[in-house]
Specification:
The complex is a heterodimer of chains A (481) and B (121). Chain A is an all-alpha fold and 481 residues long. Chain A is built from 19 helices and 2 strands. Chain A has one domain (2-247, 255-477). Helix content of chain A is 73%, strand content 2%. Chain B has a 9-stranded antiparallel sheet with strand order 4-3-7-8-9-1-2-6-5. Classes of the chains: A mainly alpha (481), B mainly beta (121).
Chain lengths: 481, 121
């Protein structure tokens, strides 16, 4: 079963690359003969492809619908067949673009983004899987809130994925006598999402913005005053709910040494290498070789190497203690093959509409549009499309780093609205951000019955997060622009 | 039939064949985790799992897993919370958390879940 799935994905990627490479090469040769700059090549390639049919959004809606309903109504079918479903729906879009639109540029671009995305996620996942943290302390609401806040801070250094993988097991273990789904859900809110809003390493959309020209420290300069009250208010709600749970707990008679144990130091260096490799990109450092037309660069090679090295050199007892397995990252990898492919038409149509509407688009509209779509789509390309639309509003081009950098300082409110919404709203659903799924899976394997896709939204994310998001909108973006 | 404590002390192995697990002891199973499945229904109407007892061993069939060794990877385990037959099931101190790890040649390592691992009751 899984062998055949791997083969499908392999041929999918190979055929995509092969067709894409042929077309890109042909177009590059034609254009270079006319002595036109490479910038123009990109612009021409992007503009000359026609918009997809509205009906091509169907595979994306079907996939999202199945991700939402599969674990709920046809659990075992979904568990066995999600790789095939995701890849086949992705292939529908791929063949449409190849055969009807003759647009391999969009596909290749998406493939490159997918590889960057999965390289970062998988390397952080595997490297952090070789680290073991043991906290032998009694679970209290304040200790829990402290861990969540600590996770929110380090998410900006090792990414929301790294922070989630590092802290979820100690967090479950500390609370093992009284754990409830809300513990995990607040962990997803703070550590896996909202926390990572301060740096480009924190969350993939900010990382894409950084690659496009947003300065590394721009986010922290323009978002910290939104991030800080947001995480403290969410933590406060957590403390309130957790305090009620503590008062019901009467069996806590265990003695605790108060020790905090840390094992797997070498993997901290691997994490560091991954974080540094984020900057190893030709767009950031001129000396870094560009591997085009390959759909990956030196950075991705380093990240994938870290996957192998950190797994091979990890201490077996730590892997066993962490019950390490590739299933969570495999699930993300397969589902996101389908999501990345099927969302191409959806994003192109959104981008087109955003450009058409132009002047009517206020920071508030960017905030809510980016947010709502980031809740269900991948937030990285959503961010990029709305960034492109916001730049287009002022006649600027997202493919020119200097213009992106200028835009960030001339019209910061738009970029702030898009950045905050892309990161914060990722917490709205299990599919809003990569680590959400991983945390859910680890929790279920630890014996915690997690709410369904809709249960998560109805019981937790809508009643808890939406009021915060409305406050952020009113205070920061309502009268902006 | 041997007791769970004897099996753990003697480091006795169970067996696994496809979707079938054979345990050299008899117990009440309270909760079981395989992959992302949390199973608490062990009644005859449960479609996912079937437990049967023989004179010398106990067997569990996992109907949703064709071959458990394909699903349970190197560092993972099937996790169970069990109570030794004859002991008070209502006393939580009698609840034992076990890990079953499929190995080569159909051998099934049976061990108490390590202190670093978590399986919440």
């Amino acid at each position: 079963m899984f062998r055949s799935n791997k083969l499908i994905v392999f041929f999918f990627l190979i055929s995509l690359y092969f067709f894409g490479f042929q077309e890109i090469r042909a177009e590059t040769i034609t254009v270079s003969q006319d002595s036109v700059s490479s910038t123009f090549v990109t612009e021409t390639l992007e503009s000359e492809h026609q918009l997809p049919s509205v009906f091509m959004v169907i595979p994306f809606i079907v996939l999202l619908g199945m991700i939402a309903t599969g674990p709920l109504f046809y659990h075992h079918f979904w568990e066995k067949n999600y790789p095939i479903v995701a890849v086949l729906l992705g292939l529908v879009t791929v063949f449409y673009y190849l055969l009807f639109l003759n647009d391999t540029h969009s596909l290749l671009h998406t493939l490159a983004e997918y590889l960057s995305f999965i390289a970062l996620l998988s390397s952080l996942f595997v490297a952090s899987g070789g680290i073991l943290i043991r906290v032998d302390r009694k679970s209290t609401p304040l200790l829990n809130a402290g861990i969540l806040l600590f996770g929110a801070v380090i998410a900006n250094i090792i990414g929301t994925t790294g922070a989630s993988m590092l802290l979820i097991r100690p967090f479950i273990k500390i609370n093992k006598d009284r754990i409830k789904p809300y513990h995990i859900i607040f962990f997803i809110f703070l550590v896996s999402n909202v926390g990572g809003a301060l740096t480009p390493i924190g969350d993939p959309p900010l990382f894409l913005g950084f690659l496009r020209g947003v300065e590394f420290f721009w986010v922290i300069q323009h978002v910290w005053y939104i991030w800080l009250p947001a995480i403290f208010l969410i933590a406060l709600v957590f403390v309130f709910i957790d305090s009620k749970n503590v008062s019901k707990d009467t069996d806590a008679q265990d003695s605790y040494s108060g020790k905090i144990e840390f094992k797997g130091m070498k993997n901290v260096f691997f994490l560091l290498a991954i974080v540094i490799s984020v900057f190893i990109d030709p767009a950031v450092m001129g000396w870094v070789p560009d591997l085009k037309p390959l759909p990956f660069g030196i950075r991705e090679i380093i990240m994938f190497s870290m996957v192998v090295i950190s797994y091979r050199s990890a201490d077996e007892s730590i892997l066993k203690a962490n019950e390490f397995n590739f299933e969570p990252i495999k699930e993300v990898a397969y589902l996101f093959v389908g999501i990345f492919a099927t969302m191409i038409p959806a994003l192109q149509l959104i981008s087109h509409e955003a450009n058409v509407l132009g002047e009517k688009l206020t920071p508030g509209i960017f905030y809510w549009s980016t947010g709502v779509l980031s809740s269900f789509l991948d937030n990285a390309p959503t961010y990029l499309n709305f960034l492109s639309a916001a730049l287009g509003k002022y006649g600027m081009d997202v493919s020119l780093p200097a213009q992106v950098s200028d835009f960030a300082y001339i019209h910061p409110i738009y970029l702030s609205a898009i950045s905050v919404a892309a990161v914060f709203f990722g917490a709205m659903t299990y599919i809003g951000n990569g680590p959400n799924f991983m945390v859910k899976s680890i929790s279920e394997r630890s014996g915690i019955k997690m709410p369904s896709f809709f249960g998560y939204m109805i019981k937790y994310s809508i009643p808890i997060l939406i009021p915060f998001f409305i406050i952020v909108w009113i205070v920061f973006y309502f009268n902006g622009g | 039939m041997k007791s769970i404590s004897d099996v753990l002390k003697e480091k006795k192995y169970g067996l696994h064949f496809g979707n079938r697990v054979l345990l050299p002891f008899s117990c009440h199973i309270l909760k079981l985790n395989i992959e992302n499945d949390l199973i608490t229904d062990f009644s005859p109407s449960c479609k996912g799992v079937h437990v049967s007892e023989n004179s010398d061993f106990m067997e569990i069939y996992f109907y949703n897993y064709k071959d458990i060794s394909e699903y349970i990877t190197k560092y993972e385990a099937i996790k169970l919370i069990v109570v030794e037959k004859g002991k008070d099931v209502f006393n939580t101190k009698n609840h034992i958390t076990l890990a079953l790890r499929p190995e080569e040649n159909h051998q099934l390592r049976i061990e108490k879940l390590g202190e670093n691992q978590i399986f919440i009751e």
